[in-house]
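Standup notes
- HV: blocked on the assembly model, inputs below
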Amino acid sequence: MATTPRVGSRRTAFLLSQLGSLSAARFAERTRELGLTPSDAGTLRLIGRNPGMSQRVLADRMGAVPSRVVPVLDSLETRGLVERVRSSADRRNYELHLTAAGQALLGRLRAAAEKHESELLGPLTAEQSAELARLLALLAGGHGLDLDAHRETTMRAADPGKRTAGGK
Amino acid sequence: MATTPRVGSRRTAFLLSQLGSLSAARFAERTRELGLTPSDAGTLRLIGRNPGMSQRVLADRMGAVPSRVVPVLDSLETRGLVERVRSSADRRNYELHLTAAGQALLGRLRAAAEKHESELLGPLTAEQSAELARLLALLAGGHGLDLDAHRETTMRAADPGKRTAGGK
DNA sequence: TATTGTTATACTCTATAACTATA
DNA sequence: TATAGTTATAGAGTATAACAATA
């Protein structure tokens, strides 16, 4: 309050962190209203986009370790949203599929994502939103973030290095 | 891969989450190189900006609970970076101050933040960076994020609701 | 009685490594 | 021997509540 230091540089990165955290938290609220954790939501989306994928591939695309998707899939399977089907080609693998209920929920999830997006960008005009999207895409590309499917934002998004904070 | 769905809307919020996470993770790496956790870093910055503040106020500004700043301050005090001085006005309070070593480290921390910022915005031109800063500030203001000092981005930035994921 | 700081406890999330079954 | 999935365990981070000192 008393001293309001430099405003020009060194602020944008923090703004980005804060707004990113805000966006993730708000979206988590929405998924929770659907009875889903963010991990659940990301899993449903990935399986919906790549039916038949294995748990290994799923884990890779989440940026997670294979043991971590197990309880998530257990929960989703128990709720009748996902099916594990043994691969006939290689019986070590499961082929992951959405059930009809899973598909339906994914539809609601997508609607929630759209609503989230429009609320988040509410303070901006359409032109400003488009410009922001353009700049963020540019930035993401410049840092090697895949814009397409991989590394969804739900599970531990984007940690390119090893670990983020381990120095005790 | 097979089906590449809508690219227009519903992407910006995820990009924001991803890039925010990336920014936070990269900055955490830098603080770690200085021997600091993100919590340490945020604490140093706040005390540096508000010398003499109490632990209660510190916790509030972090968006943390008072019991949480205790081990952080213990660690910083042990390393000779921070001092706890009993308030003469109200002896329940401590007045928090940086030592000379703490000041020096804060300087290095600020330099690291500048470097982080410039690396993060590296893919953009100066004009694009300025435009991005403008749009993000607009967005932050629209969502009631305080641009100034409160709610630093280091400790659990910006969770406006209650809890983010508790529906098991 | 209310408040500051502290301690003790428990809960959540996550990764690591050992294990099985297939290949 | 190598790989997909699973289980068990441990570690980090965090909040809640009970506590002591001061007001």
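- HV (later): unblocked. Chain A is about 55% helix and 5% strand. Chain A touches chain B through 74 residues (CB under 8 Å).
- Next: hand off to the docking folks.
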